[in-house]
User: Fold this.
Amino acid sequence: MTSLEAKIDRQKLPRHIAIIMDGNGRWAQEKGQDRLYGHFHGVESVRDIVEGCAELGIGYLTLYAFSTENWDRPAYEVDGLMELLVDTIRNEVETLNRNNIKLHVIGDTNMLPEYARQELKEAMEMTSHNTGLNLVMALSYSSRWELVKAVKSIAEDVKEGKIDPATINQDILQKYLCTSDFPDPELMIRTSGEYRISNFLLYQLAYAELYFTNVRWPDFRKENLFEAIIDFQQRERRFGKTSAQIQEAPL
Ligand code: IPE
Ligand code: IPE
Ligand code: MG
Assistant:
């Protein structure tokens, strides 16, 4: 165990970590390479971080891999990313099963090419029996898309008399989100030195601790993850209360 890993308090692990994996393109361009070269190397970081989370016993890891807005990138990059996604999923299913990891996908998957949808469906089925880390891939995802979809579904259910508008509360709204099966993220990490949320889990991040690092995603490794977790564990999460209240009755 590395010295950083030893500093992590196993009793205070975040249950759910969400990551905006950013900086692949700049990482490649800084090396005089094509942006796709950065995405390709980003997969090594995904592997390392997934393994790190599984080893620590983290319950949920959500990775923002492709946003709704990313469809507007040049076709060459979008096509390259789709191929990379399919190849990676195909190659990793065995490792996911060996490590008891269950794959989930959130996002507007209807936008994905058919071959990618099929590959994802098979991978989810093949890992559905696993009981360890829940790996949630946000693909063709954006929070505003998710919220609009939720509102539409609620409106339809109200129209059909399935729910009474007077009873709508946070628990009911939660059931209409793509993340209905997962607890809210407690720690959100964004790499590459950008300080924004870029349409990621806007509702679910309400009380998440945010951690920003300048490290580009292809350079992000377990040690960087451990640093983020240690930082998280030093924070006082007050949820609107006072510090004294939290110290009297820790959450
Ligand atoms: C993140 O890296 C991966 C995706 C958005 C698909 P970027 O491709 O955004 O890399 P930068 O931010 O341009 O460096
Ligand atoms: C956010 O990164 C989306 C993913 C990491 C998948 P972007 O690179 O697309 O975000 P912006 O455009 O810098 O806000
Ligand atoms: Mg980016």
The beta strands are 16-20, 60-67, 102-106, 134-141, 187-190, 209-212. The chain is about 45% helix and 15% strand. Residues 22 surround magnesium ion (ligand 3) (CB under 6 Å).
